[in-house]
Every structure is written in structure tokens, then in C-alpha cells.
Amino acid sequence: MRESILxxxxxxxxxxxxxxxxxxxxxxxxxxxSGEACLQALEGRRYDLILLDVWLPKMDGLETLxxxxxxxxxxxxxxxxxxxxxxxxxxxxxxxxxxxxxKPLSLDKTLLVVRNALRQRRLEKENRALKEQVEHRFTMVGxxxxxxxxxxxxxxxxxxxxxxxxFGENGTGKELVARNIHLQSLRAQGPFVEVxxxxxxxxxxxxxxxxxxKGAFTGALAARKGKFELADGGTLFLDEVGDMSLKTQAKxxxxxxxxxxxxxxxxxxVQVDVRVIAATNKRLEDEIRRGHFREDLYFRLNVIPFHAxxxxxRREDIPLLVRHFVAExxxxxxxxxxxxxxxxxxxxxxLPWPGNVRELRNIVERVVIMxxxxxxEARHIPVPLLGIAAASAETSAAGPVDDFPSLADAREDxxxxxxxxxxxxxxxxxxxxxxxxxxxxxxxxxxxxxxxxIPTRRGEAQEA
Length: 464
Ligand SMILES: Nc1ncnc2c1ncn2[C@@H]1O[C@H](COP(=O)(O)OP(=O)(O)OP(=O)(O)O)[C@@H](O)[C@H]1O
Ligand SMILES: [Mg+2]
Prior knowledge:
This protein has 464 residues and is α/β, with parallel strands linked by helices. The protein folds into 3 domains: 4-134, Response regulator (Rossmann fold, 3-Layer(aba) Sandwich); 145-309, P-loop containing nucleotide triphosphate hydrolases (Rossmann fold); 313-463, Helicase, Ruva Protein, domain 3, CATH 1.10.8.60. Helices cover 48% and strands 13% of the residues. Helix 2 (35-44) packs parallel to helix 3 (61-71) and helix 17 crosses helix 18. The model is unreliable at 385-399 and 455-464 (pLDDT under 50).
């Protein structure tokens, strides 16, 4: 899109020459001859830049500048100063003009100043958009007691330099906790570097963490910095820390004790200033008992323990999370946010959510993409029951036969899926589902509640 410039000058010659050269440069230019006309123009539309003469007949440039800020607080203003009005131009810059040019105008100089001002404005805009995106991405949504407590703990622990160990099931938001601690810490301006200890092959993890010298091993064509060094001055997030081998654990322990690292095949060790946040979905106490995790490393990492609560213990957050994800994902896909019916919300809030928030987000993503209309209804929601693929749930009995501890468990699993499938087909209507299944409605309701297919509070209120 072409950028727009408003020229404010009482001299017709200046107006027309500026309109000419700026127009040739591809800008959309409008001109007015007074401060009053400038303010009036701003009431009607926004410009990307204003060129403002300081010496104007009635309302002068300085006054115009301070008044226009009330209308548009952000538009960059370049002041045009006449002979002997440099003082005023300087004053203008002090009260918020971006820059100034002097009369008689050098066209080259003017163009340069205009280009610079516009580029800076673009960068600032981009920067703000990115920041908002990041902030939105790492917003912790939820009003449950568990999340409120978590937030308070983060605020308390973040400014300290203490090591943090985050426990939590898959998809409960462990990384989100780590990011929030970093963002609220004194290291927020520093890097946040993540290492997934489970995803890196054993033979590579050392060089990944500590870096390596050129020629340290076959394929090490150039020296490479490790994650510890990359995180210098910031935070290193050791994800899935329970999956490190004992050998790597010993090295990490040393690095933590000494705040120094030794690159693979390198002579000199390197001093680093890193705060370590670790996360795991394993019970490290059990791993220690089994001899899979070093106790000394555990104590070193676990200075401040955190627990990311599973979604099933805070179902009241589900509607908030759903709305948050619908807004975020709709934006990402360039669509208008869809409305979600109360039934759909009820259905979502009742699912068991073995995959926690990550699973919820995936489902919302799928629904946002797949729902044709403007409304998301209960029947649009696929069944992620107990992590069994929705596809197998849709074909119910034809699904794969899982291993169940007993016949009762297997029967229960089938019943749950079957009821859910019918419930969806009936548009989330309890009475119609009962009819379709030839069971008493109250009986069906009890079963669904027992299976966690209905949230207790809302369900009762609705079905009473
Ligand atoms: N309270 C929350 N508010 C908003 N989004 C959340 C919340 N908790 C988790 N999420 C989102 O859910 C997804 C999973 O979160 P995250 O990656 O932090 O979890 P995790 O515990 O590290 O998962 P995994 O075990 O899979 O590594 C992310 O998209 C994250 O933004
Ligand atoms: Mg994670």
C-alpha cells in the first residue's frame, strides 16, 4: 500500500514543489495551508507522515503539533523551519516532532528525512505487532484456583535467579510456565533457549548442549556453540530432562556447579551465566529409585518446584481456553472468529482430556478449520476420547482393539465411545440421544456423567 503524507505550509510554492517530488516518489500527498486545516484533515483520516511548517499565519506549528497529538498520538511529524526559526524547530523536536528540515528546502535532504521517518514508523509498527503476538502466544489463560496459584508462584519466583523444575503431564503448559518465568525475570531481554533432551540422539546431545570445536568428530566441519553458551545472559530450558542419559546428567551437573562448560573436543572451557529451568512429565523420584536419574542433579535442578495442573482438575478454564484458541487460530487462518454454542462448550468441558491443553488446542484448530458455518455446535466436535484417534471413534466398533486390563474395562470403553457418537449425531441433545439408544434419559445422563462426558455443574443446571 502506498504511504500517505500531509503537507502543511502557507506558501503555495512549497506545497506544490513538495507535492511534486513526493508524488514522484510514489507517496500519496495531500496539502493544506494552515494549522486549522491540518487538524480538520486529521479528523477525517490518518496519514503515515506529516510535514509541518513551524511558521504559520494563525495557529503556529508548535500549537498545531501539540493539538494534533490529541487526534493522532503516533503519526511522525517532520517540522519545516524557515529562516531564523531554528530555535522553534528544536523546540518542536523536543515536544515530539521526529525531525526537521530547513528552508530553503533541499529536495534530497527532505526525501532522505521523509524516508527515514517512514522506515522507522514501519519498524515500530512491526515491532509492536510482533510483541503483541509473542505476548498473546505466551498468555496464561485461566481463572481456576490452580492457575491463579500458578501465576502467583511464577511472579514470586521469576525475579530470583533460582533454578526451577516444572512437573506436569503432557500438554499441561510446562513450556508456557517456563516462558512466563523467563519473561518476568531480570533476564527477559536475554535469550530463551530450549533443548528437548528426549528428541536429541544420545550421541549428539553433548555437542548440542556444550558445543564442539572444529574437527571434534567426523562431520564437525566447523566449530559450533552449544545451547548453554547460546543461552548466556538468559534462560536455558531443559525440556524432558528425565530423558537424559546418566552420562549426560553428570556433565550437566558439572556445568551447573561450575557455571562453566567444556565444548566437545575443545581445549578451553567457557564461563556462562545461565538460569536453568527444567521440565519433566516423569516422576523423577521414581527414576532416582530405579537408578535412572542422579539424585544430586535432581536436588540441584529442583530448587523451586512447579506443578502444571492437568486440565481435568480445572475444567472451569475450558471455555476460556476455547475462546482464546478460537480467537488466536481464526486470526492465524484469516477468518472471523466463530461462535460456539453452549452445547458445544458443554461437550468440550466434559471430555476427559488426557492430552490436556495441547489436545484441546488441536481439537479447536481442527474445528476452526472444518466447521463450515459461523457456529460451532456439539456435533462438530470430534471425540478425542482417552487419546484414541477420533477416526477410530467414528467407526466405533470397527476401531482397533486396544489392550484392556479386563472385559469390564473394554466394555466401558466401547460404551463410552458409542454413547458419545450417538450424542454427537443427535446434536448434543440428551433426550434425543436417550431415544436413539432406547434407554431412560436419567439413566443415560448418569452414565454420561460417570464417564466424564458432561461437566458436573453446567450439566446439572441444564438437565434439572
Ligand atoms: N493456561 C494456558 N493458557 C493458554 N494456553 C495454554 C495454557 N496451557 C497450555 N497452553 C497451550 O497449550 C499448548 C501446550 O502447552 P506447552 O507446550 O506449554 O505444554 P507442555 O506441558 O510443555 O507440553 P508437552 O508435554 O507436550 O511438552 C501450547 O500451545 C500452549 O500455548
Ligand atoms: Mg513441552
